[in-house]
Amino acid sequence: MTIIEVPRKSNPPNARLPNTGKKPETSKENKQKVENIPLLPIIFICSVVTAWCLALLLNSFGIVGNDDWFDGSSQEVRIHPQHGTPRYRPQPHSEAPNDKYNHKIGGYEPFIAIEYGAFGSRVGASVDGVMKIFPVNGRLKTPNSVAYLDEGVLVGQDEMDLPFVNPKNIVYGMRSMMGRRFSTDQTLHRDTQYLPYEVINKEDKPFIRVVVNREDIILSPEQIQAEIFRQLKLAAQDYYSEEITHTIMTVPAYFTDDQRQAVKDSARLAGLEVLRLVNEPTAAAIGYDAQNQEYLNARDESFVLVFNTENADTDVTISSIEDGMFGILSTTRGEFTFDPPNRPAGESVDYRYDITSEQYQERSDKHIAEQLITTVQNALTAAKLQKGDLSILIMTGDESAIHEIQPFLETFFDGKTFLSGVSPDTAVLRGVVYQAEILSGDLDGDWVGAFDITSLTRGIETAGGLFQAIIPRNTLVPTRKSLNVTTIHDKQTKMMFNIYVGERAFVKDNTLLGSFELDYLEEGPAGQVVVEVVCELDTNARPEIRATELGRGNMAVWNAGEGFDERHMTEDLQKMLVDAERYREEEVVEMRRYDGKVADGDEFGIVVVPREEEVEQKRQQMWK
To answer: Per its record, what are the GO molecular function terms (predicted)?
Structure first.
């Protein structure tokens, strides 16, 4: 919502100047000339100057953009359905008929793409093959802040725009709160205790308290963020002149399943259904057309580093590209400052030290390089790669910061340059718009990369009640992985497959998804019959398990079905992850006792057939 300041009406032509109480010191002739001066032209000129100054003032606050104010198009004020206060909404652009751009996607309305950034968000779409960004209140990038006033709600304004508003009612940073819990996230309390607005613990989740018309209002982060998503939606609707209900949206690669679901819930409150969530580094790489670089064709698998910086926050993501599919290997977050630390950590003493500007710049450069290299090196270590293994380097985010830090990174990578040709600030939005265009059917192409991750490991039960992982957590979907299993009894003609999700070593501590049997196996000694188990996840992370007897083709299939919703099985995701880490050492000891043993009543059990490389590795260890 935007509050529009209406210019004051000019004085009528017959208005008189205020009486000063002094008698004019003029002759009769001069007095007659003054009375005959026409006031209407003077009032008209003053009104024009006043309106011009008012327009510049509104534009400086971001309330009205230059194009919206001066292009002569009509403006419309609508009443916000919830708060009953005016919202500024420009009329659709008039350079061409609107129905020309009403591209449909499988019966959906016009399809939009949203870049959900840490500090600001943008909405765009592909128009005749060109990315178009829809401005909100004259801004191409809307700050992720919401101000709650007695008169209504202001979206996209910060403290600098609203100096006379209570800072406790200006709320921002919802992206870092959604989907988190106080009991399982140790850093959440630290992240929220120094904010200017009030954060409370409600049902183990962060909520925000604001005061409107002297009444306390408790809001969830999803409700607050929905105000911003609603404005992005309205901006696109103004362009297309019809209702929009579907979108593709970007999220950080490190987001958990709960955080991703919270983003979807927030968008749903704004009237948007999120069909796909795209990881920001993947969208950035697509925006640079990284998957189509010519030199990638010579390698089966290539590696891409995406360095993102925004407001001194940095994150480095390393992905693999194979057959046009992106897989995230590691994500590391960090911070950097341009100024080196110049205060001693000891007691305060009187000390003077003269330093030249060149010496200060040298210290500053060294300080920046150390911070950047540490973050990049941590990402390389987590991905188990060397800097020479990287094929593509990409930078996204704040262009002014990129200009300063890019030389340090290129030096670290031995002169290897970053991809260019695309604005780093819009690369993420460009990538997600490209994906939206493919989804809409307006562009012939294949899906590039995956758009969600598995929140928990998928696997099956093996002998002794052990949990055998097939697809680890944080794997990008869609995906397909397999392993081989064999019988544990002589003349065993049936196998029972119990599918679980979780991170614990024993199935009793994980969540059962379903079960199925493979019958009519060939009779033979234990370990002779080999069955391939394939676990496949679609774009919505719905699992399908296939068990096929090798050599005979005997097969059984289990799938979760259309109504599968993993959220109901992983509501306490953070607690499950904490417990897995807490009991890891104890479970390792217990696994050594039960590995390969048959539990009581395990008539149709299975054991995993080691892969050749695993057998060779164990053989080498024995020789050592």
So the answer is: ATP binding; ATP-dependent protein folding chaperone
